[in-house]
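Problem statement: downstream parser choked on a complex file, so we are re-checking the raw output for the zinc ion run. The parser issue turned out to be on our end (a line-ending mismatch), but while we're here, posting the original submission so the record is complete.
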Amino acid sequence: MPRAERRPHTLPESIQRILCISAHPDDNEFTVAGSVARWAREGRDVVFCLVTSGGAGTNEHTPNTDGLIPRREDESREAARILGVKDLVFLGYTDGALEPTLALRRDLTRVIRQQHPDVVVCGDPTTRWYGDRYLNHPDHRAVASAALDAVFPSAETRAIFPELLAEGLEPHKVKEVLIVGALEPNAWFDIGDTLDVKCAALRAHVSQVGPGEWVEGLLRGWGERDGKRVGVRYAEAFRRLILS
Ligand SMILES: [Zn+2]
């Protein structure tokens, strides 16, 4: 393996609470679950906030939407259990129709003020496509945009969303943001010890992956690609923003 110019990142002791905000029930398992399992093993509290419950996730394994939402919520709970995630928050928005509205920003601000995360993990709202094969889902961009706006300025600013103060939710300042899927990452986490757990968690989304025989190959390939950047076998890549 050629020498990498960078080293993998590890979270400092001061980071104990992590909130991952995503649009769909399986987004975290495709992207950040190796790091999540690692953080959980290190004794940190990880909470998932899922903006939709994936009611539009039809495919060859799940050809219609009958009973899909409770099924996907159950799959999400099982994946979270596998990863060591402490809690799940479902916001119940309609899958496939998300916009970065003020209402969504307020709901995410509420979750941040309730959960007090040191780090918020979310997607990259600026990326419309990856390579020449994948258009980024508009729900992913909408949630990422609202999440970043909730982190700053909404969660930490007393005068924004005074109705949250009336609910007893005081401002909260997030220390760092980790953006997954960024085209210019600057922080990589070694997931060599947790890639297998990531694969198992994604396979828990049976309504989406079926038997999941392709899961391991896909996630190993992505992990190897990102691992090369920091000289480890498998990694996940983020854009890290330090806010305080
Ligand atoms: Zn998604």
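For whoever reads this later: The mean pLDDT is 96.
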